[in-house]
Each structure stands twice: as structure tokens, then as C-alpha cells.
Amino acid sequence: MLPRILLIPFLSLLAFGQSPKTPVPSPRLKIALDAGHGGDDTGAKGSKGLLEKDAALSIVQELSVSLDEAGFDVVLVRSDDTLIPLWDRAKIANEAGADLFLSIHLNAARARAAKGSEVYFLSLDRGDEDAASVAALENAGADVKPGADSVVAGILEDMAQKAYLQDSERLAVAMQLQLNRLGGIKERGVKQAPFVVLRGAAMPAVLVESAFISNGKEEAKLKDKAFLKKLAVALTQGVRRYFAGAAGTARRKAIVTSR
Ligand SMILES: [Zn+2]
Questions:
Q1: Which of 185, 174, 191 is nearest to 242 (CA)?
Q2: 137 CA to centre of ligand 1 in angstroms
Q3: At CA 151, angle to CA 145 and CA 152, rounded to 5?
């Protein structure tokens, strides 16, 4: 057994860079998990019939367990098969006082061989052609008209996400690194695209295209509980690395801005 005197500072350091002199634990950080699509909006469809809305919810459920085990609180934006307008999703996260917003999706491409994970953060312009077409698919759900309150809130909160773009990029990089490791991919970088769902988030926010549902092998993996767990652990590790690098600044900024 390790001597107690060694263990105490070590455990304190694990708590996201807290100084060993502050033994009082800080409140748990809160992660908003948004499972893409839902209800009539099925999202993309795999060749064996797996629907993106169902796969996204399965990932979010695994991720929720994994984040909880790692010491985070979780807010589920969508916990069943209902359609929540894109504009309202970030609003739910904002009202819950979440520290991060993760929107979980599956990618689809005409090229059946396309595979792997891509993490996006918000672009205020159109982005490159590939990114724009991914965003166009994901934004289709925005056709569900939001209420007037949501529109006003969305416009105001556009400015808030603008203030978080650097943090969102850092979060995207931390998560992409873990996903590259999981997929054995060396050099896939993060991307930027104009996703409606990210615009209203008053906190660092990313959209994860977790795998290609259009790729038969990846579609099969998405039905495998063991793979979903590995994916959830990789995403959780990305979140942990992000906060470890943030040294507390991301949270402080979030609290100041929400007042
Ligand atoms: Zn999607």
C-alpha cells in the first residue's frame, strides 16, 4: 500500500488540475449530450437499415454511463425517440448550466469506403465543400420551425458561441485525437462547418460524426455493444483531456458569461 502522504496530493491533482492545497472538491462539471435527429427525422440510414437517430441515441446512452463513471454530471438533450428542434437543443443545455455541449451524429458518404470519426466545431461561414455538405445534411432538421422565443434566443446566443470558438476548437482537437487512436488513424484533423445545432450553445460545443453509417463494417460495429463502449470511453477521455488542458479557465468563463 502506498504511504498516505503520497496518495493525497496525487488524488488532488487528478481532480482537473486543482491545487493540492484545496481539498474541498469543486462541483461536478456538467456535460450536455445531444443525440442527433429523432422522431420523424431519422438522419442517415445504413445499408442494413440502421438509422442514425437510433445509433446516435445508443452512443449517447453509453457515453452518459462513461462520463458519469469519470465524475461528470450529464444532461441528456434527447433521451427517447422524439424530435427536438435544432434551435432548442442548445437552449436546453444553456438552461441546464452545462459546461460542454456534445452533439452526437453518424456520417454518411456516397463513397461506401469512407470511414472513421470527424469532430467539428462551428464555422460562422460556409466552410469548405465537404464540410458544407455534411452541415447541409445535419441542418435539414432545422426545417422544424422554432418558436419566436427560440429564434430570438438563437440570435443572441450566436454571439455566445462566437466567444467560445477557441475553446470549442481545443475540445474538438482533444476529442479527435482520442478518436484517431481508437480508429488507428494518424492524421485526421478537426473541421469547421455551419451547424445550426451548435450556434446557440453558450459553452464550448462540438459535433461528433462518430463513424460512417454508410460503411457496412462501421454500421455493423455500431450495433456492437463492446464497440459502443470503446467509443464512449474514447470520447470521455477527450473530454477529460480538454478539461485537464483548460486548467479550470473554461468553467470560469462559462459561469461569467451566463450571468
Ligand atoms: Zn446527423
A1: 174
A2: 7
A3: 160
Q: How many CB atoms lie within 10 A of CB 144?
A: 15
CA of 11 to the centre of ligand 1 (A): 39
Q: Could you tell me which residues are beta bridge partners of residue 107?
A: 212
- Give yes or no for a contact between 170 and 132, defined as CB atoms under 8 angstroms apart: no
Q: How far apart are CA 167 and CA 178, in angstroms?
A: 17
**Which structural domains are found in the chain, ordered by start?**
25-119+126-257 (3.40.630.40)
3-state secondary structure of 208: strand
188 CA from centroid of ligand 1 (Å): 20
DSSP string of 89-154, one letter each residue: HHHHHHHTT-SEEEEEEEE--SSTT--S-EEEEE-SS---HHHHHHHHHHHGGGGSPPPHHHHHHH
- Dihedrals φ, ψ of 208, to 5°? -105, 115
pLDDT one-digit tens code per residue, 93-144: 999 999 999 999 999 998 888 899 999 999 988 778 888 888 888 888 665 5
CB 48 within 8 A of CB 216: yes
251 CA distance to ligand 1 middle (Å):
28
d(CA 35, CA 84): 10
If we measure between CA atoms, which residue out of 252, 241, 203, 187 comes closest to residue 97? Answer: 203
Pairing verdict, β 205-212 and 118-122: antiparallel
Q: Given the C-alpha cell 461569467, which residue does it identify?
A: 256
* Ligand 1 center–CA 43 separation, angstroms: 5
pLDDT digits (tens, 9 = 90+) for 52-96: 999 999 999 999 999 999 999 999 999 999 999 988 999 999 999
Stated pTM of the model = 0.81
